[in-house]
Amino acid sequence: MITTADQIFVLAKHAALSLLHGAPFWVVETASCLINLCAVLAVFLTLFALISVLERKILARIQNRYGPNRVGPCGLFQPVADGIKMLTKEDIVPRDADKVIHFLAPVAMVAPAILALGVIPYGRNMTPFSIDGGVLFFFAVGSATELAVFMAGWSSNNKYSMLGAMRAIAQMVSYELPLILTVLPVVMITGSLSPDRIVDAQAGYLLGAIPHWFVLTPWGAAAFLLFFTASLVESNRTPFDLPEGESELVAGHMTEYSGFKYATFFMAEYFGMFAVSGLAVTLFLGGWRAPMAFLTFIPSWIWFFLKLATLLFTFIWIRGTLPRVRIDQVMRLAWIFMLPMAFACIIAAAVWHYYQRGAIGWMAALLIVGAVYAGLSQILETRRKLSVRTYRFAE
Amino acid sequence: MNGTLAAVLAVSMVLFSLGLLAALSRRDAIFMLIGIEMMLAAGNLNLVAFWRYGPQPELLTGAMMALFAMAIAAGETAVGLALVLAVYRHRRTTQVEKLNTLKG
Amino acid sequence: MNPGIPFILIAALTLSGALAAAILPNLVHAALSLVLAFVGLAAFYFLLGAEFIGLVQVIVYIGAVAVLIVFTILLTRPAVAQRGDLNWGGVLVAIAVMSGLLWALARTALPANATAAAPMTVMRVGQTLMGDYVWPLQTVGIVLTAALIGAVVLVMEEDR
């Protein structure tokens, strides 16, 4: 069901491009790319502003405070005030810093995040940059972030920056593996690396009410949780925000940045969060597909952004709830829990596919994921850790 | 010289020579590894170029070779850098000219 | 003989990155220039119609190799610039090799145009890897595992 409301942005873009009627091919092509780029930037800069104030308000509610409520109605213009403050602040560069790299690091940080946002399908026919290996492209540009963090940490010539950067790179490299391995079952089942095809594979409903989203299969649910945890680490969010742990490292690799460069880092972090949540929506939550058959009259892009908002709220909720973990706990979790679980997901997905994706396959996949989880929790003694805590006090 | 194949090959040759320069003229083991990486990458570019301009591009032969070469290059870097680290731990240097204990 | 503007731009990016990686005195600068050269190479693969190879190039070389190099630099030394440690014999050899290669290239007749072929989709890469190339794939897997174990053993702390 393709309605006008559903395709309104696509139609608007075609109307704009028809103004260029008769121009050479490459002009139209460039204009089309520029329109897509501007749309992505406009949407996500607005979302960034909105989320930055909503995050503060939600955190405030969790902590029984009001949060920002002075600038504009309900404090909604706070990001504007913050932006003006950031722009007018002095830009301090340390004397012993490597000036060129110090300048390039924020750019190298935010560019991959914007590129990664390009391959996500935001609605029906609404992928800004359709590419055959879209998921691979996402991870390829994502891997450049590590180098940006290193550039920031090294060029600042500050031990806190360096330590923060080392921690950030160590945990990002470790979690790249579970992140990619949890995507693998989805790619395996759909037989494609293209996000559009992955969304198409999740079309249709069981009895008109249960969507064929991958998150509703046992392997998909486990993979989604693992992916979500790994994406918390990749975007350096609490409880895994060790690289910038302010109580021990000032602000990690961002210590020596001020003014607009700091704002750029902040923006890159949020853009990365949007990108990885968008990928999670695409891979596991059915992309822009409606959750029930009779709800398809609501435009596809509204569904996408609703799902994205849910995930972003969960990010903020976790930040308000969980304390920061230790660096050795982060590494332990990646290598001895998440990696075996990711492999279990791959095997469970294969078994599910082997049994024609029916009820037997569903149960078998549940059995495999459950067995591996139970086994790991026995071996790793998570039961002891989850039991009622006994406190020991200093004598 | 004619066509784009020649241009790609020229680029990969210059890249190879720069890699050779880095590997031969630097005294630091990490620099030498960087040079070796550059030479391997130039070889990969050659493989892909010959695949694209070769008689049977549908067989993907050169592209597959390039993929395998990349995998090997990654393994080579890991082992090479581990060696550099191991040497550094004993000798506190990565300058290859100072690692001359066996020299008579 | 007209490679096109994108080609010239990408070639300039790649070669300037490579040149900087070869001659810059500071290790970190050289490693980051190497990343620039790798980005240019990935762009070359896109230009040649091998998108998948380009993406793998970015993941493997920038996500893994460059990060490894940078980490080793950090673990082995404070970032000190060393001056004047260019071995001129090596430069001469490199120039000789380059002129020899370019001479060979100039004297070789090469096909001017690419033969038309179906685009290299991920699907075809996967089928080829799992079909004709399944033995090389498995072997590479074993080689990589061996390299992984070897690297870990090499850097493991020795008991003293």
The overall pLDDT of chain B, averaged over residues, is 81
Give the beta-strand count of chain B. 0
Helix content of chain A: 55-70%
Helix and strand composition category of chain B: mainly alpha
Structural category of chain A = mainly alpha
Oligomeric state of the chains?
Answer: heterotrimer
Could you characterize what this model shows?
The complex is a heterotrimer of chains A (395), B (104) and C (160). Chain A has 395 residues and is mostly helical. Chain A has helices spanning 8-18, 25-62, 78-88, 99-117, 134-142, 144-155, 159-190, 195-201, 218-234, 246-249, 259-284, 300-321, 327-354, 359-379, 382-386, and strands at residues 205-206, 210-211. Chain A contains 15 helices and 2 strands. A two-stranded antiparallel ribbon of chain A has the order 1-2. The radius of gyration of chain A is 22 Å and the shape is globular. With 104 residues, chain B is mainly α. In chain B, 76% of the residues lie in helices and 0% in strands. In chain B, helix 1 (3-25) runs antiparallel to helix 2 and helix 2 (29-53) runs antiparallel to helix 3. Helix content of chain C is 72%, strand content 0%. Chain C has 6 helices and no strands. Chains in contact: A-C, B-C. At the B-C interface, helix 1, helix 2 and helix 3 of B face helix 1, helix 2, helix 3, helix 4 and helix 5 of C.
